[in-house]
């Protein structure tokens, strides 16, 4: 089945809002076996929205729109829907009651303007919204399903996942699609391809994609076919091949994050971690503590940004700093070791580098970063050469540090 996505709002066309809704919907639809043919963004114009909806339902069996379902005057999607499908707006008592209850639950009297939201296209069905006031609207006619969702990403997401996806899954689709994402880090895309490509044989209906980002390269396996079993088998076969050829770089699957995976490893092995950061200024600690339950293994961190703090709080030696500088393997080693002592943790990570844009030299250009790891068995450090962009360098340093720890715990050489 073909699908199209229409995202609505002037803010998408002026560049003030990044169209994350389209990406989220496209991913979900692809995962359940629909082919997304196109994604359109349209400004707040009733005529244009109406025209886009009309064209889309001729071409595709599933059309999903987001945005402009709110109660304010700039929310005009409903006007366009009733024009496109030649229907009237009818009042829905039950929707109004739900709305009133929502507001009452928050201790607010419902503003009169929200009554608009109980006016909905005739003959439509509705998807409840647990995070907001605009319900999702579904109009099914011979040959197509049209669904309009609110624009607020959190609301859109909830209705999409809880209501729309199960609804669409219940429809007869022509084929089965399986998508598996294997997440790698610590290796660049071209090197990964060198490992994987030589003996790779892709069966019919099987595709492999490389999706690089600063945190690593995702390998996306997509298998399409008629038989569910066959699709599953082909996907598993490719996954096993990828694990054989590039397994040491694969830290997780699908929605796994490196910080989450490392957190699990620490928790499962009953180990604790502390960090000391120079150029990342706390970003590594933030990443680690973004994982729920991190208090079970993360002890704390020290932002040793200035040399003064490195010497006075962390007790790294002044002589070493004079001789090698703060951005050096020696400093990363001392930082990690002292941090482990200071916090009494099983592992300690240290990061010191030149994030840029200034401060580089010939032997230590911008991007030069040293990451140390202290364990019960000793301390080691690695030099990394990242790029020229400050933010990217800082992020890459954090992921590299986590990967160093992952390999240590799993004893991957
Ligand atoms: P509301 O009831 O809040 O008015 P709505 O359905 O009218 O919901 P919009 O007014 O279009 O939604 O957008 C609400 C918010 O969601 C805005 O801050 C907007 O920037 C954001 N938003 C809208 N569309 C998208 C999109 N496609 N991707 C990401 N964010 C979006
Ligand atoms: Mg709005």
What keywords describe this structure?
single chain, 413 residues, alpha/beta, 6-stranded mixed beta sheet, 5-stranded mixed beta sheet, 39% helix, globular, binds adenosine-5'-triphosphate, binds magnesium ion
Mean pLDDT: 94
| Secondary structure tally, helices | 14
Biggest β-sheet: count, sense, barrel? 6 strands, mixed
Strand content: 25-35%
Bound molecules: adenosine-5'-triphosphate, magnesium ion
Distance separating the two termini: 46 Å
Low-confidence stretches: none
Which bin fits the share of residues in helices?
25-40%
What does this protein look like?
The protein is an alpha/beta fold and 413 residues long. Helix content is 39%, strand content 26%. It has helices at residues 10-13, 20-31, 46-59, 77-85, 93-105, 153-169, 189-196, 228-246, 258-268, 283-289, 307-312, 318-324, 329-343, 390-410; strands spanning 2-8, 35-42, 62-66, 89-91, 119-121, 125-127, 136-141, 144-149, 176-184, 206-213, 216-225, 250-253, 273-277, 298-303, 347-353, 368-375, 378-385. The strands form 4 sheets. The protein has a 6-stranded mixed β-sheet, with helices on both faces. Strands 14-13-15-16-17 form a 5-stranded mixed β-sheet, sandwiched between helices. A hairpin with a 2-residue loop joins strand 16 (368-375) and strand 17. Helix 3 crosses helix 4 (77-85) and helix 9 packs parallel to helix 14 (390-410). The radius of gyration is 27 Å and the shape is globular. The model has no long low-confidence stretch (mean pLDDT 94). The structure holds adenosine-5'-triphosphate and magnesium ion (MG). Magnesium ion binds next to loops.
């Amino acid at each position: 089945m073909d699908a199209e996505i229409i995202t609505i709002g002037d803010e998408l066309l002026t560049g003030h809002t990044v169209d994350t809704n389209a990406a989220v919907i496209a991913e979900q639809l692809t995962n359940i076996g629909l082919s997304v043919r196109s994604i359109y963004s349209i400004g707040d114009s009733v005529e244009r929205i109406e025209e886009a909806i009309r064209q889309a339902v001729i071409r595709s069996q599933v059309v999903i729109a987001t945005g402009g379902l709110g109660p304010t005057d700039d929310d005009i999607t409903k006007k366009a829907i009733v024009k496109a499908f030649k229907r009237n707006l009818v009042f829905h008592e039950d929707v109004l009651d739900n709305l009133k209850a929502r507001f009452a639950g928050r201790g607010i009297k419902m503003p009169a303007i929200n009554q608009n939201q109980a006016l909905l296209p005739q003959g439509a069905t509705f998807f409840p919204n647990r995070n907001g006031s605009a319900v999702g609207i579904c109009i099914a006619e011979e040959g197509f399903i049209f669904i309009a969702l609110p624009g607020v990403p959190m609301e859109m997401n909830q209705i999409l996942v809880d209501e729309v996806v199960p609804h669409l899954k219940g429809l007869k689709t022509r084929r089965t699609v399986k998508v598996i994402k294997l997440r790698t880090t610590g290796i660049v895309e071209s090197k990964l391809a060198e490992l994987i490509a030589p003996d790779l044989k892709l069966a019919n209906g099987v595709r492999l994609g490389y999706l690089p980002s600063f945190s690593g390269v995702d390998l996306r396996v997509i298998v399409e076919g008629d038989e569910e079993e066959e699709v599953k088998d082909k996907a598993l076969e490719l996954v096993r091949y990828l694990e054989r050829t590039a397994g040491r770089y694969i830290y997780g699957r699908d929605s796994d994050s490196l910080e989450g995976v490392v957190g699990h490893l620490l928790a499962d092995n009953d180990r604790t971690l502390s960090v000391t950061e120079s150029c990342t200024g706390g970003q590594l600690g933030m990443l680690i503590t973004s994982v729920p339950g991190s208090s079970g293994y993360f002890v704390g961190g020290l932002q040793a940004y200035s040399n003064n703090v490195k010497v006075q709080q962390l007790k790294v030696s002044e002589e070493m700093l004079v001789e090698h500088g703060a951005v050096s393997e020696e400093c990363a080693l001392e930082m990690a070791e002292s941090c482990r002592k200071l916090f009494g943790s099983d592992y300690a990570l240290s990061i010191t580098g030149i994030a840029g844009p200034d401060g580089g030299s010939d032997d230590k250009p911008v991007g030069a970063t040293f990451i140390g790891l202290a364990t019960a068995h000793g301390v080691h450090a690695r030099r990394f050469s990242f790029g020229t962009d400050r933010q990217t360098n800082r992020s890459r340093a954090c992921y590299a540090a986590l990967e160093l720890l992952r390999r240590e715990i799993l004893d991957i050489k």
